[in-house]
Amino acid sequence: MTKNILWLQGGACGGNTLSFLNADQPDVLTFLEDNNAKLLWHPSLSLESGEKVREILTSILRGRVRLDVLIFEGTVILGPNNTGRFNMFAGRPMKDWLRELVQVADYVVAVGDCASFGGVPASDPNPTQSTGLQFHKKEKGGFLGSGFKSVKGLPVINISGCPAHPSWITTTLIQVLSDRLTSEDLDEYQRPKFIYSTTTQFGCPRNIYFSYKIGLKEFGHQEGCLYFNLGCKGSYTRSPCNLILWNNQSSKTRVGTPCFGCTEFDFPTFNFFMTEKNRSGIPKRLPLGVSRGSYTTFSAVARATAPNYLLKPLNKKKGEEADWLE
């Protein structure tokens, strides 16, 4: 039986759509064919517009067309004054269409950090009154409320990220389209555990520097950990970015850029390129599962036992010292 997918966008930059189009294992067309799925409409990919789009939506709401999966990208915009008129779509506020469509969808999927948690648009001062589908930042509720369940009995399925990796999107949708995803497969933020069960740090080639607390003081070097000074959030951000590589070859930390924490509810946070520290010089945000006391104790031991070769340049030139490490 053909499964019908409807993809809508709210307060979105379209980044998750562009990411989805880069899928190659499988590519988008193969993904749809292999899963017997039909894309009813997509704002960037479909030809229909205006009244024809309204007809598609009306057919769904009247039960003439089944809606298996509703995918939403971007924030739900409630402004001004909770009218939603900052985001008009097919003659009505998008939020009004959304409120009705979620009631007839077997599954509701939020693609990207904005749809999941509110992301950048929902950050203060939030002039558009943006929110996520079922979360507003860390607080559960969002637009649909904490108790919302789709026709199949699941809450909103969040595929967070700015953008979400194409493989995260296709892998999750394959599970959804085959009715194999259950509530037990979701973490506390309603993200698939098979994607968001590890931290971004897992698989990072700079991990050995993290283990021995050898920090990098400036950008542009292969050596050193980006966590201690340069803002990397990989040790407390859940994503497989160093396992499922971008373009099948890279990630932020592999090219010397700190993880921005874009899969988490509080994205965006403090300066992306600077680690916020307390008066003692200890990072305010510690790795997941690590207490402040343990961090202080083990940091001193690790740094004292660091092998000498880690303090030297990987590609050493004559007389050169790695003075960019500390």
From TrEMBL:
Organism, scientific name: Stygiolobus caldivivus
NADH:ubiquinone oxidoreductase-like 20kDa subunit domain location: 13-175
Cofactor: [4Fe-4S] cluster
SUPFAM superfamilies per the UniProt record, alphabetical: HydA/Nqo6-like (SSF56770)
Domain called Cytochrome-c3 hydrogenase C-terminal: residue spans: 196-272
Subcellular location per the Swiss-Prot or TrEMBL entry: Cell envelope
GO molecular function, one term: metal ion binding
Binding-site residues for [4Fe-4S] cluster 1, renumbered to this chain: C13, C114, C162
Protein name: Hydrogenase
Domain of life: Archaea
Residue numbers binding [4Fe-4S] cluster 2: C204, C225, C232
